[in-house]
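Input for the complex:
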Amino acid sequence: MVRKDLSITFMGVKFPNPFCLSSSPVGNCYDMCAKAYRSGWGGVVFKTIGPKHYLIDEVSPRFDALTKEAEPFVGFKNMEQIAEHSLEENLADLRRLKKEFPNNVLIASIMGSNEKDWEELARLVTEAGADMIELNFSCPQMTSHAMGSDVGSNPELCRKYCAAVRRSTKLPFMAKMTPNITDMCDPAIASIEGGADGIAAINTIKSIINVDLDKKVGLPIINGKSSISGYSGKAVKPVALRFIQQMKTNPKLKNVDISGIGGIETWEDAAEFILLGCKNLQVTTGIMQYGYRIVEDMKNGLEHYMEEQGVDHLEDLVGLANKNIIPAEELDRDYIVYPEINSDKCVGCGRCVISCYDGAHQAMEWNKETRRPNCNHDKCVGCLLCGLVCPVGAIKPGERVLKPGRKEKNLKKMVLQETVEKL
Amino acid sequence: MSKKYQEEYEVGFTPRLVMEEASRCLLCLDAPCSTSCPAGTDPAKFIRSLRFKNVKGAAETVRINNVLGAICARVCPTERYCQEGCSRSGIDKPIDIGRIQRYITDFEDATKMEILEVKEPNGKKVAVIGSGPSGLTVAAELAKEGFKVTIYEKEAKAGGYLRYGIPEYRLPNEIVDKEIKRIVELGVDIVLNTKVGEDVKIEELRKENDAVILAVGASEGKMLPMFENNRKVIKAVDWLKKTKARKGNVKVPNNVLVIGGGDVAMDVVTSLKLLGCPHVTDVVYEQFSEFRASKKELTGAQAEGVTIIDGYVPTAVARGGIVKFKHRVIPAELKIKADLIILAVGQVSNVNGLGVTLEKGEVNQKGCRVEGTNVFFAGDIGHGEKTVVYGVRSGKEVAFEVKRFLGGKK
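Predicted:
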């Protein structure tokens, strides 16, 4: 029975484990957050609290899902804005949560429309007992352009609002970034310069997820219309990892604590965010689909991974992969790897041949008699698309050869990919 | 002799296929599968772990609950238990929980996981008589709690019906060996070739140990009076034992008649077919609607080409292996001549010299302890169904009662 300590310190606060609800529909009230804590979540980012003057008025329905083949949720669209409960109710919930769950971390997410709002909200949530604050600079579905992702894509506003919050609280706080921007480092640096202690990334991606073909309206349909709004779920994980990696390797941000968000459902997803530099992890879409219970396997799976890696502190895994993401021009382009076909596993579907011809270099040949593929090395460039489409994992990276005229390296020191199979 | 008999009949899942099957699971709110296992298995939890890529966590869930997890995965009639109420049936068919559990325990074995832990020795000694499902379970559960446990087994190897009954194609002895090895590693001693009541007196064991648990099973086949001393007749358990011990290297005649319709009968008829017997006829007392054998085993037997005749009872046997039957309800008669007749009409327990008496096959005491003594009873001679999974359940229950009995002061 594996038992590893998952506790980790993030922005100076010790979390029993790095898993938190992100500020969203999943942490909307006391009951939800209390259930989440009891289910094993280390922390909660309570749903974003806005200023009194900003009235929430939501649409119905407000979600939609992107599907692919038999998968019910590849990506998820959300049109819900920030907390709809009154400021007083939200502050009362924060107080009660902190009182009843002193060992779990309580993070208040706030969003204002001017400096005064930000100062006021930071003061109120500090008084209510939050352990830290997250500044929501990034919700893409606000009905006010003075709030949400329009702020997060403007570094000067990020700097100004962080400075405002810094003036009114001593709590550590992080700025939550929008991915609807070319370079996240700019607003992140401005936020740190303004006084933020950390960064949370990413919020949702502006999206139109599906269009109803009869009614000619995006989904979800609200009286014949729809809007651009935030996209999340497993499909956004690669986008999140990219932004996080770029921030963690920026000289001005490399020592800044980051809370990773974007499509985390399994311990493997969590480990990827940790290896790219996150000390904290936030989840919404996975919970909306499967419930708070998914934290059980994220925690236990991460413990097993630590055991396999021979690591006693989660901290020891943070950022280990960052150094291995390098500019494309610096990659070793001296060799190619040919596919190796396991004829015992091959069931003769020919998908590798189709993909190689139509999507690669026409190297995979088909024996019509035996109904088995054969790779022609004269044409093969070693892209290994064949292995990715193989439904039975019969194709893996095989013989490695140097390109003509390139110098041989010490093979033992080379780190090569061992498999392309996804399951 | 027969590769088919020696190889597992059902193919295990590959990683991709097990994920496809786990993806069919609806991840129910109040999963019916997790409230219907006699042994307390929580399939909803281990399937969810698998679905979320935590196979090691899944293995922990299976193993901590059931020391015979890899065996149950293979032999349990899951259609009657965890799969019966599966919500997925509302769409198409239940999740193949047994095969998922098998994938998980195979993974546990392949990655050499050591999941079970043993508490500090508590100074108490326990003897277990019999090493079948209930004996192994009670021994392991008590060893985990710090008891010093010794199992006494009359045969040359441990495992009881798991080793000597269930055929190789359904439960390879390699799996039985691995499960027993795990239990031995918990500190359980197994004394082989020792029949309590003959080689060792029960009174001695009662004196030497703080508790004695009878888990002798029902290892002897029943005989029907008309077949007594008939040289063409063999009891099913004896035939299965011989066949498994010889790894299928037994002579199989051309034409075999089997009488009986439980899982033991299904094991016999399917084994015969896998061993190459051309004509296997099974005559069953029950009609199909009231069949006792699991659907999976029945379907397997039929798929192998066994002729199954339901609703007939034997009335007479003549020289040369000619058996006459009559139908239980309709006016019909049947006459079958066979080279070999195998009787699968139930088993009985032998409790000679163990100081207990049986009533309808079960010890005539309430609960699981012989009143006024330190003797407990588990498994087939206890109260409840006579299946492997009930053996596990009984083993766990008796371990709990023994703990309470011996550690009552704490």
